[in-house]
Amino acid sequence: MEQIVNQTKARKVLYEYTTPLGGKRTDVVGGYIPAIEELRKYQKLSPVDFEILSYRMHSICNEARQAVLRVSGSPVVAEGGECLFAIYDPWGYTSSMACGLLLHLAGTQNNVKEIIEVQGESPGIRDGDIFMVNEPSIAGYHACDQWTGTPVFVDGQLIAWLGSLTHTAETGAIEPGGIPAGARSLLDEGYRVQGIKVQEQGKLNKAVINGLLRSSRDPSYYILDLRARIAGLNVAKERFMKLIKRYGVNKIKSAIEQNIDHGEAMARAKLRSLADGTWRSVAYMDWDVGPNPKLIKVTTTMTKKGDELILDFDASPPNAGYFNCYLPGSFGLVFVAIASQLFWETPGNWGFIKPIKAYFPEGTCLNAPYFAPVGLCAAMPVSDLVTTTIAKMFYTNEELWGDINAPWQRNALAGQFWGGLTQYGYPSGSLFSEIWASGTGAGIDQGRGDGCDTGALMMTIESSISDVEMTELMSPFLYLWRREGIDNAGPGRWRGGASVGWAVTPHNSPYVLVGFTGSGHYVDNIQSLDGAYPPGLEGDCMIVRGLNLKEAFQRGYIPQSVNDLREMAEKSNGSLEVVAHPLPTIPMATDKDVAVNVVGGAKGIGDPLDREPERVLADVINRIFSIGAAKEVYGIVINPEKLEIDFQATNKTRAQIKENRRKKGKVWEGK
Amino acid sequence: MRIHYNLDLDNVTKKIKCRKCGHEICSGKENYKLHVPRAEVWPDEIKCGRRPLRNEALCCYYEYYCPGCYTMLDVEVSEQGAPPLWDIQISLGA
To answer: B81 vs A284: CB contact, 8 Å cut-off?
Structure first.
């Protein structure tokens, strides 16, 4: 193992969004952008008008996002829900948003800024232009994050921007699926564009679109995602222009700015309701590029004072592999926690970003130098760190106890990617959808209590997963199993949610690759809260090769466990290999090889010994925990035949666990 | 004021105490983890799911207990030998 690297002493960098071109009245060829001072001196709307217009703008975002979801055929978008839609003010400040991808809530305004700065003067910004950006050093966190935006002009004045983002899975990287574990540079992670016009003054630029399509292994999914984003923009623009016609442009301009101020006021009021203080948390990852494990550490110190929140991050230096992030991505990952935990009731816009200050030191994996690979984003733990510190802070206000939530953004390990030829003969590549069914973090007595099993990916909070049958129809795989993992929820007084494990074999295709991502074999990514244990894994990710699966299927036998696979491998002189770290995509043989995939559960809260025996019994009956874990961790003894609690033995076991704590616990004395 | 699932900060004495047994642990200006028993546990000692094996694990667990009732207050994932993390530091003013 490589020694843990020292935490950096490098210069801290405050993430900031500054108004492009100083915010002065600016000619953009197709019209002009008013000065920012002029916009900020808006005529305040009456409470009734503001409610109506604020709600209408949010409804436009929601409707446009639904249009994107329905046009896209990509499982990542259509079922994973990985898309957002936003309305920005003329200088790019987000005013209203329908967000299925919380990590992009804070970042996409950078795309508008880039377009104004680079293209405002030449070639210019005109009505009917649609720009596209998927540059992780500008916004998003990797090349899969593809944003498309358009300006809205009224009488020559640019009054707003509309923007739509999808996670588009195939970027033409060195491996299929868009997040290549083999990348050693940003240049390995596929095509990137920084504001090209896919449409000019209402006319699609077919040459540009052809260029994009020919850069992807999967042009069919790709074009659907692009058209979906354009469809969303068209829907929103039509609705937005009707709104302007009905209420007048001045009221709409006011509503855009007032919405931002309203969000800020709500956010600052909530912060004021909490005690001042400082909270800290630590997260880890365990692999860079090998051949040995490497401990990667990310920490945060969160200080809340009055109505401001300061997040001071530190992290290990950049990695050679893809566990890195540029500044916009790291800042974006903060907002997975801020939007879902702290300000969930506040309109998602620039207003609630303003009270948050985040520092990321230069030369760390959270603020990596340009060209560092960023496919899997070292900042993923950032969301867990911030969720943890917010949960601890919430204890100081009784009214917020119901909102306390243990983290679940980065649950351990996963097998995720595939590429190759489909059973229909065309090239494709994507993610397996099970990651979107991660268990969710526990709450406490006044809130949700136990986490939700197979709930959602934290950053894509309203996600769902494809049916097994749909995945089998669309991609060249057969499932051997998909189920909630046993013993992988974080055990606590309130337990985390259980996540999903699955096993697939390539089917009906001459060429299939599978890749594995993630970490968690050598270290728990982040702890649970307040005395709960970190979640475990149901088992290891594995590649099993050389099975006679076709023959087994013909006689009606489907292996249902790793033990079944092991027995089959022994009989056929096959092999079974544990995948303990990110693994670049490798070929799998049709009807012979199996990829076993596991995802860790979510974090719990509180001492497991405080969990009521009846809840533990229910967990055992529901296959969340095994009888063995019930006894070892919870001290609950269950009769395996009758599935009943042995209360006498339980009392004895729990007393013994407490006694063991008395014997082994010593106050820390500095060594 | 509550500061943890099982800890309060007494508004009068400004001391951190256990919500379950009332044991006073330390001043609210200090890291409570410096005043409670802690035990080093390796992940694979916890028999619940697959966890990093002792010969491979890059971090261990530090369990912290209330000195009064031995309720487990925290399970830190940490490098072996690392000092207790000061995770909760309420501002008490001057």
So the answer is: no
Q: Could you tell me if A439 and A453 are in contact, meaning their C-beta atoms sit under 8 angstroms apart? A: yes
Strand partners, A568: none
Q: How far B35 CA sits from the closest chain A CA (Å)?
A: 6
User: pLDDT tens digits, residue range B57-69?
Assistant: 999 999 999 999 9
Minimum-distance CB partner of A530 among B1, B6, B33: B6
What is the residue type of A312? D
Q: How far is it, in rounded angstroms, from Cα A311 to Cα B91?
A: 16
pLDDT at position A9: 57
Q: Which residue of B has its CA nearest to A294?
A: B58
Residues of A in contact with B89 (CB under 8 A): 277-280
> If we measure between CA atoms, which residue out of A656, A490, A531 comes closest to residue B64?
A531
| Among A19, A53, A253, residue whose Cα is nearest residue A153 | A253
Asked if A58 contacts A50 with a C-beta cutoff of 8 angstroms, the reply is no
Q: List pLDDT tens digits, range A591-602.
A: 899 999 998 999
pLDDT score recorded for residue A431: 84
Please indicate, yes or no, whether residues A593 and A660 belong to a single structural domain of this protein.
no
Q: How far apart are the first and last CA of chain A?
A: 23
The closest CB to that of B75, out of A528, A664, A665, belongs to A528
| Residues A198, A72 share a domain | yes
Backbone angles phi, psi at A258, to 5 degrees: -65, -30
Same domain? A632 vs A600: no
Interface with B, mutate which of A605, A661, A669 (most B CBs under 10 A): A661
Domain that residue A114 falls in:
41-173+189-243
The interface pTM score, or ipTM, of the predicted complex is: 0.98
Cα–Cα distance, A514 to A643 (Å, whole number): 40
Over residues A203-229, the pLDDT tens digits come to: 999 999 999 999 998 898 889 999 999
Buried b (16+ CB within 10 A) or exposed e, B24-41: ebeebeebbbbbbbbbee
What CA–CA distance (Å, rounded) separates B16 from A111? Answer: 48
Q: How far apart are CA A148 and CA A68, in angstroms?
A: 11
Give A86's contacts (C-beta < 8 A, 6+ positions apart).
A61, A94, A95, A96, A97, A98, A99, A108, A162, A163, A164
- Tell me if A330 sits within 8 A of A372, measured CB to CB: no
Do A553 and A471 sit in the same domain of this protein? yes
